[in-house]
């Protein structure tokens, strides 16, 4: 069964982007060196994201073809059809991820946005999180974890790394146990 990862950056107060999808605050964060995620990307076969994340990633990269050689699934309520190396889908993210997990292949990278991440977390479908935290407070914007009524989700802290001014947390979901006491 394929694993599902979230890998992405947030502000100190938990926002993925400003309310207008601006990410300049992230690009203004000093990294001290080239930020290389090629080892992570080598583990990925499919990239999943919302339409806004897809378009903003294209715009910021200056390339129409993003995440080359990876299958891309882009969730959209309005767009239809094919994209380069992928498709728009309008279905339930839970059903789509469950289908992808059952297929043979490399891991699935959920790039964003927050609505998709929150939905997948609610259904215990994200196995690991890599979250880079920038030391900036935005005040408003689009949150990584949207407010929702759901049961507590626990993760194990695997590592903490410093990448320039970013703090990167790597976390693994703790599997539910039927013998665990309820708190």
From TrEMBL:
As one GO molecular function, the record gives: 5-amino-6-(5-phosphoribosylamino)uracil reductase activity
Superkingdom: Bacteria
Name the InterPro entries on file.
Answer: DHFR-like_dom_sf, RibDG_C, Riboflavin_Biosynth_HTPR
What is the recorded name of this protein? Dihydrofolate reductase
Entries under PANTHER family matching the protein:
2,5-DIAMINO-6-RIBOSYLAMINO-4(3H)-PYRIMIDINONE 5'-PHOSPHATE REDUCTASE (PTHR38011:SF11), DIHYDROFOLATE REDUCTASE FAMILY PROTEIN (AFU_ORTHOLOGUE AFUA_8G06820) (PTHR38011)
- BP GO terms, sorted: riboflavin biosynthetic process
A Pfam family assignment: RibD_C
Q: Which residues cross the membrane?
A: none
Q: Where does the record place the Bacterial bifunctional deaminase-reductase C-terminal domain? A: 5-165
